[in-house]
Amino acid sequence: MEDSVRRTASQLMIVLEPAVPFLGHALASAGAFTVGLGITQVTGFALRVSCATPVLGPALGMSGIGLSSIMAGEASRRFGYHLRGETRRHRSAQAVAQDAALDAIMGITLFKLMGGRFRNLMPSSLLSPGACAVESLPAPGSEYASQMAKGELKRLFHRDGCHHCGRRNGRVIGDHIPPNKLIHGPAGTQKAIQQITSSLGLSNSTAKAPLSRLSNKVGQILMGKGRVRMAGPARQRYYPQCSLCSGKQSNVVRMGKDMLVFHFYGMRPWYYAGAFVGLRQYSKPPLARLQQRGLRGGYLEDEEH
Questions:
Q1: Which of 274, 268, 218, 266 is nearest to 242 (CA)?
Q2: How is the chain split into domains, by residue range?
Q3: How far is residue 116's CA from residue 118's CA, in Å, rounded to a whole number?
Q4: Nearest 5 degrees, angle CA 278-CA 274-CA 110?
Q5: DSSP notation for 173-207
Q6: Per residue in 179-228, pLDDT tens?
Q7: Which of these, 175, 146, 293, lies nearest to 243 by C-alpha position?
């Protein structure tokens, strides 16, 4: 009985031995890729670039995917050196550039094929659909969501998380985007708009225009260049939102500012495309080397005679 167990254990070691470097390469590249994504989001936060920023948001996101893929490939490569007991190989500048270009192209391609969007690598703007937004519901006006809409928003919240930060726990809130205070503002809001237009030196005829005509200019002032267009009849939608982001949103709307929030809770499958980048460094250890590492002379050798 004991011999049978030992024989089975020896055979199992041979089967599982190739999986160790495979998993090691995958984990090393996935870890480095995740760190690169975090650096990308922090960079966007520092530059005040959100997922709602046109052109610059997707461009910075794609650059972040490329750099994260290069980091993933290098981490997997160094893991391979350590696994084989080798010191770091000297590579020419041309070889380093070729490996970096291949890793970047592979990571960007896989990210897109898996359904990722470059702009969603940037932090979320509290005045626009967030980086974790997947689905939304039509909002009929400034009223709160109906019971039916709340039930659907709750389902979306538990499936996709808060559209700004990705958090899936706590109370779900139906978030009007664009926010109500920028669309259906009270008389005090109209007065504030008139003060803003007067300070900008706009004409009196423009200052006397209806709120719907001025909302586009005010939206550009409050939200940045073209982040949310509110000219004409506003088309609002409900997005699932957590109570923490809702509280922050109320404050920034009241102060006439914008705020960016991180979305580390909302990792999607395509954010781990970098794990596959490092697998091209994987090489299966030969069976002869496994036998030399202690299995030879045991049951494998006995079976040969």
A1: 266
A2: 18-123+268-284, 129-261
A3: 7
A4: 110
A5: EEEEES-HHHHS--HHHHHHHHHHHHHTT--HHHH
A6: 877 776 654 444 444 444 444 444 444 434 444 455 555 444 444 444 44
A7: 175
